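Please check this protein record:
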Amino acid sequence: MRIGIDLGGTKIEIIALDDKGATLLRHRVPTPTGDYVGTLNAIADLVLLAEKDVCQKATLGIAVPGTLSTRTGVLKNSNSAVLIGKPLVRDLSQKLGRPIRLENDANCFALSEAVDGAAASAHVVFGAILGTGVGGGLVIGKELVAGRNKIAGEWGHNPLPWAKESEWPGAQCYCGKLGCIETFLCGVGLARDYRSLTGRDLTAKEIALAVADGDKWAQKCITVYQDRLARSLAAVVNLADPDVVVLGGGLSNIMQLYAGLSDLVAIHTFSDNINTPIVRAAHGDSSGVRGAAWLWSASSSTAKAAK
């Protein structure tokens, strides 16, 4: 049995999978706000309760916002401030008395979809998360490629490709730079575009609903968003040339994005023939936690067990 944990800023989700990937147990609890020790305790309690429910000991993989520093072993690049600078793997491993594998949540998403999701038949897979943030992961031969510095797939923190004059220099990103892809393609970015056109505040989800209701301004925002998404994915295709791109996160549920998206990507790629499928995640919100569980099936050298 494999247990996966998805550690988010507002919730902690646990899943238990059997050897074939069938779900044995799934549960969510709120993340203790601003409480690192409380977060450790909540994870440990979930793991022990899950093992008691299914009467089995399990391997444990964890998906987190951020990644482990290869230099210090503590968490970096996280939008969950309470985790930054903490030796999460060491502390949890000591608390539970077992090795733990930990990866960035976008990497876990990509791995999940490559193992038994929308890209299960593909060799090279790029998974892109479009939500509160914009993350990504690269999987080759069902093996996660985390990279030498543990930042492979971080397409969201590159400049928006082929930026137009009206898009320059772009909004401030939490990473400290201006005009990152994330600032344009995250939910806040979409909402900002709608507000600039209408003066009204709608969430990304409300904008998607407004498109369905015939709101011309919402449709214009989605058209602009799709163009920016296509340019950003074209840069990924030029670099990695994946067999398939899988989209996840809340904004991936906006179905209007997919119509003609592959053709728009092809316009910006360095080839006369691009036929890369761009598909929606099969496991939806469960992909991150499933990918965490599958870390113990991956042969990736970047997913070493920490003692």
The chain has two domains: 2-107, 118-281. DSSP finds nine helices and twelve strands in the chain. The CA atoms of residues 76 and 84 lie 5 Å apart. The mean pLDDT is 92.
